[in-house]
Amino acid sequence: MADASGRTAFVLGGGGVLGATQVGMARALAEAGIRPDLVVGTSIGALNGAFVAADPGVGGAARLAKVWDAVVRDRVFVENPVRQVARAARSRTHLLGNGPLRHVLEEYLPVDRFEDLAVPFQCVAARIEDSGACWFDSGGLVAPVVASCSVPGLFPPVEIGGAHFLDGGLVHSIPVGRAVELGATRVFVLQVGRVEQPLRPPRLPWEVGMVAFEIARRHRFVHEMAAMPAEVETHVLPSGSSSSPNVPVRQMTRARLRRRAEQAHEASTEYLAGL
Fold first, then answer.
1. What pLDDT band is residue 3 in, cutting at 50, 70 and 90?
2. Measured between alpha carbons, how far is 3 from 185 in angstroms, rounded to an integer?
3. Can you give the chain as a three-state secondary structure string?
4. Which end of the chain is least crowded, N or C, by CB within 10 Å?
5. What's the pLDDT tens digit per position in 116-161?
6. Nearest of 117, 151, 135 to residue 37 by alpha carbon
7. Burial (Cβ within 10 Å: 0-12, 13-18, ≥19) of residue 130
8. How far apart are the first and last CA of the chain?
């Protein structure tokens, strides 16, 4: 389903292991024949976005599902507790190495440069030295995607060109504004379900930090959606889930993540059928 009137963008937001939700959305879009002219991603959405940009068809969606099986199998977001403690003691800054994530990208991405992707793709990371948002759109893919996924405290910063980078979600949680800057006139937002859940004032001590974190994560997206030009057609795809908890990485299983992907696929398929 091509957009005859302009440029279609897929925007993939952050959300850690809940990024499996985007697998179902990508599949629904591919099955509906909706192909992007541009893909923009941040954090885990950078990883998913790279695979969508490499192949936005049904085959690419199937490849992405296999990637998430590999994420669990290769323990990208979890490690033996003893090793975690030892690594934290050595580094003093992070619990995990980014080797497994690099391996998944190198093993499963069919290309290794932005220029070789089937669809133009950009991802963002937070540059430590000047607190800036750095967008990557050329050269090698792996380092920028790993940088965009580098959750502070979990992974080490990634050095690129003499600068050091952390998770793109620190500066853009769902970068719809970037897609519009790049000329998108139709935007499909692939989110992980959190923005569907309204926030409420905290009632318990541990809820204070969670609510504050969600406000920080969402406020730019809320502002950019409110400022969206009237001529830009925007679709926030549904996750199909009634809740989007902060899933502890040790509870991440293939069955659980596949279920999130299936829920998103079913809900997004129904949504797209109504367009």
1. very low
2. 9
3. CCCCCCCEEEEECCCHHHHHHHHHHHHHHHHCCCCCCEEEEECHHHHHHHHHHHCCCHHHHHHHHHHHHHHHHCCCCCCCHHHHHHHHHHHCCCCCCCHHHHHHHHHHCCCCEHHHCCCCEEEEEEECCCCEEEEECCCECHHHHHHHCCCECCECCEEECCEEEECHHHCCCCCHHHHHHCCCCEEEEECCCHHHCCCCCCCCHHHHHHHHHHHHHHHHHHHHHHCCCCCCEEEECCCCCCCCCCCCHHHCCHHHHHHHHHHHHHHHHHHHHCC
4. C
5. 999 999 999 999 999 999 999 999 999 999 999 999 988 899 999 9
6. 117
7. exposed
8. 11
Q: What residues act catalytically?
A: 43, 167
| 72-122: pLDDT as tens digits | 776 666 554 445 545 455 656 656 778 888 989 999 999 999 999 999 999
Residue 250's pLDDT band (boundaries 50, 70, 90)?
low
Only one residue has tokens 């992974």, namely: 155
Residue type, 266: E
Identity of residue 178: R
Q: Are strands 158-160 and 233-236 parallel, antiparallel or unpaired?
A: unpaired
Q: Which structure tokens are listed for 135?
A: 């967008």
CB 104 within 8 A of CB 63: no
Place of tokens 């057609």: 233
Q: What is the mean pLDDT of residues 187-198?
A: 93
Q: Between residues 32 and 80, which one has the greater pLDDT?
A: 32
